[in-house]
Amino acid sequence: MPRWRALPEELDPQVREFASQLRRLVDRSGLSIAAVADRTGYSKTSWERYLNGRLLAPKGAVVALAEVTGTNPMHLTTMWELAERAWSRSEMRHDMTMEAIRISQARAALGEFGPGPAKGRNGKPRAAAAPAAAHPPTQAASSYSPARQQSAAASSSGARSYGPPSGPGGGERPGPARGGSPDGQRRKRKLTMFLAGVVGALVVIAAAVFLTDFGKDKGGDDAKGTPTPTPSISESLPEGVECKGASCAGKDPEEMGCGGTLATSPPVDVLVGAAKVEVRYSKTCGAAWGRITSAGPGDTVEIRVKGEKTQTSEVDGDFDAYTPMIPVKNVEDAKACAILTDGKEGCTK
Residue 284 in contact with residue 244, Cβ under 8 Å? Predict the structure, then answer.
């Protein structure tokens, strides 16, 4: 089984060459990824991303790797600068592509609403024609004219109308408009507007009363006092640390930010065959885990704390492994054990 995965095909050639150089340095040193993480202060998860081309290693990690592997940092940082420029160009192209995709999606979404309202000759939107039955007073008002007003007034007083004929034939006199006289229509419109104003005023008054009562209730709640929020665990921890104490139980120490420079090993370790087993402890996270190095595939390591569930991990092709965490107040309460495939077993004191 090869140690390294194939680098992504879309990587820039400069970034690909730089990642390959980092892999050669790690191979030449004979260190596992976990050992590199422990000696450089950067987590194992981060180094896996750097060495597999998923993330460009920061300059600090590159300098630390040069010191660990005995490489001239000047030459390595020169290659890093070229890779960093290529990585920035790739990110810029990706951002421009994503922006173009978002613009296309926005245009497509806006197109679903269909064309806008039709416009008249002067460029203004045309008003929608209302049904004739919806506004009978307006129809009556639109059919009103001075000649018909004179005719209607004459009819109501019993006099004859001598106005000009309304039609081409000249023999038919105009009758009163439908719905009553114009004065009646005006009175109806005034009454309608008055009622609408009364209703609007009542709505405003009701809204004002509701808002006033809501403000009083809110003020009363504030007067009673709001409980001070308790700071969460993440707010009291250093940046990058995701758990502490019981919340770390069963979780990966590297992913939770408890490893690297935040972890220490007591000066007591045990050799079981060719494998070394030790306890790793993070005071910041209040947790411990077991680690085995120079082991073979199938060997297992355990971390045991009285009153807590034992955590176990098995060695794969990296020749080392570490267990999930167990919450512990004192590192002396934790014990790491190794169980080899040949039956040998040993634990720390």
Answer: yes
